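ok trying again, last paste got cut off:
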Amino acid sequence: MKLIIPMAGRGTRVRPHSHTTPKPLLPVAGTMIIERIVETFAKTLDRTITEIVYILGPDFGRQIQTTLTEMSDRHRAKATFRVQETALGTAHAVACAAEDLEGEVIIVFADTLFDSKAKVSVEDADSVIWLKEVDDPSRFGVAVHEGDTITGFVEKPSEPISNLAIIGVYYFREGKDLMKEIQYLLDHDITGHGREYQLTDALDRLLKDGKVFKKATVDEWLDCGTLAAWLDTSSVILEKESHSYPEFENSTIHPPVFIGKGVSVIGSEIGPNVSIESGSEIMNSKISHSIIQQNAVIKECAFSRSTIGADTETEGITGEIHIGDHSVIRSS
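nice, full thing came through this time. structure:
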């Protein structure tokens, strides 16, 4: 089975970090967002992912492809790369992998993490849509259903027609059927919100053609689309997972934390809800509720609710701060 991941978006709401790293490659407690998604499928799906198709932006460099290939290799899947030259909507993004839309496919938009205790079966369905019960369905696209069968889709309903939000994960028994309907939208210039080609319009056409849609509900749906959401999701994951850490010189650690390989902590107070990626150095600092990427050097700082990029140097900073990769910030 192929896993198709559109990820050409610029991730503007997680800047400055997305200037150098696509949002799905940002870490959550030591593991990239996108790899956590692949791990969830391996744990919950009754199929094996054999190929991962990444739809990238035109300016994504070779290093990003290398990182994604290495991740695919870890999960025994072939890595394939396609390019979306211009962002024209969710259906257009999927269409950029037209040559890969054949046989069984899963499409996942890598903005969120999700989890479920139950195994997901895709038997007896032309399509399966992953859903999450929400308090305010007017903010989301929702699925209308009778039992396990989906009967319709409504974008941001004004009436309480359904409280099951579409989380951006879709299975199709035959990718060609989906591509046929997407091509119809493109050929006839059928667009939705923002004059973009919407995947839900293609789903509607498949449903009206008699295809059987089933629902799969998730227990947890965590957003990583903004700096605040990335921090909050990191805290939730840290609370769920148990990460060990060594003792550090003259330092206090308040779990939950993630501390990667080769991290040095001296004379500091760390936690709770702090993720420190490999190779970073923390000296004489107090840090809580923050994400620190690899090889960062932090001296004489006291901050919370902060995100620190890779290969940075920060000294004498207090409060909340968000700095991108390869930056140097020192107090005057």
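cool. Residues 227-240 form the longest helix (14 residues). The chain has two domains: 2-227, 242-330.
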